[in-house]
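Can't attach files on this board, so I'm pasting raw text. These are the components:
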Amino acid sequence: MSGKEYLEKVRGERSLLERIMGYIPGYRGYKEKELRRESDRLVRMEVVNRLKNAKMTFKRSFANPSVAQKLSGEDTYRYEALLSRLDRVTQRIDRAVAGYAGMFDAVKVREDKLDQVLQADASLIEKAESIRLDVEKIVKLEVGGGEWRQAMDNLTSKVEELDRLVDQRTEILRGLQG
Amino acid sequence: MPKVIEWIGAREEDIVWRYPNEEIAWGDNLIVHEYEAAVFFRDGKAYDVFRAGRHVLTTANLPLLTKVLSKIAGFDKVPFRCTIIFISLKQFQGRFGAQSQTKELAPIKFFGSFWFRVEEPNLFVNEVVGGQGAFTTDKLQGFLRGYFNERLIDTLSQYSLSEVYGKLDETSLMAKNALFDAFSRIGLELIDVKFEGIDTTPEWRDRLFYVKTGVAATEVLRMETVQKSAESLSKSPGAAVGAGAVILPQVLQPAPAPAPLVPMVLCPKCNFQNPQTAKFCSNCGAPLQVAAGGVNCPKCGTANPAGAKFCLNCGSPLQSTVKCPKCGSEIQAGARFCPNCGEKLA
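---
Top answer:
Structure tokens for the assembled complex are below.
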């Protein structure tokens, strides 16, 4: 689902009272922005759920002592570092700011900017899904083997890439992009 | 007047706070901050977990009207009850510490910290908090202590003392992974476990030091025996002067190297075990040593010199093969017919 489709979905969920109130000057703009923020929150929750799913699959696979014991010191570091990065990016998306600017702020946050943010966040879903699928493949590999290490390194790069994409969101809100 | 419900003034250790008023009216506003979640119960059922935002609540409790109708119906209080339980989603630090044993039964004391956060607010409220008004990290530690001690004791018992000291990272990862399920079961996520201190008794610390410097474990134990003997002698009031001079030199001697294992030779005749250097069996007198290229008699087992055609003891033929007089095939000695042409050989 694209960002616009999410917005339409949220718009369609409005009650009669909310729709009537939408005609009140001043309130309409507030509500339009709020709808975008709410849609964006839904999109971000979707991304977060996929990443949490990936993290859970990973942790569950190592809950078995016979699997965890196969990790050498170096592999332990590799595993821990990946998990920390995955956790960081998940929290960054989960706790991201909704997007707001004060009345006299130099950079304004209007509907068009919130639409861009929404679109940028929607593109994260695909990336998160790809991470989730990679994790499912990794847990089936022999822990500590060459193939496993390669897959772990590739996944780390993918998580770092996702982290960089989250930065774009901040840049849009600050008016540095778009 | 609609109320605004929010959690203000949370202390550092507070995980959960229950909004004390259960008479929540239609239209009351619930404010949930980004670092919180709020579980909303209506008529005893968990309806939703609210995340950050302002939420206008809909309940059957209509201001004024419900109160009037409740009085008419004879209720002593409004029957439409709602409960809001706020959960802090930040990371919390817990402490652990216990005593255990390593693989070689060395006593070990450990302590450290663990970090966790509430992953599933609804599960956590229903499984752990229940109807309590507040819930702090202290209470949770009391709840989790059993899990921690059991898992860590079990994990540490799989490692030797030197491994525990040398591979603390791996040990904590093992512990963390082992605790993962126990935490998720009650809606928590264990983020990290770190040992801050591990110690053993002075006796085992010395042993660890010597073993790390390359001294054999048996040598460490012998030195300990010497030390204990010396201490006992010095304390004993009845010990005669000079007793130490008699005993200590003996225990101070390094343990004699164990005699190398001498390979034994079996007597080919009676199967008696003889030293490798023996020339004749000490049981039956049969010759034991076979010269290079020599051959043992297949009948009596006597060792015969190389090239001998018949046993010097019983006269049996020693050659392992014979030639068939008809077809010339190589046949095993003692065969009665040639396997190639069927010629009788006896």
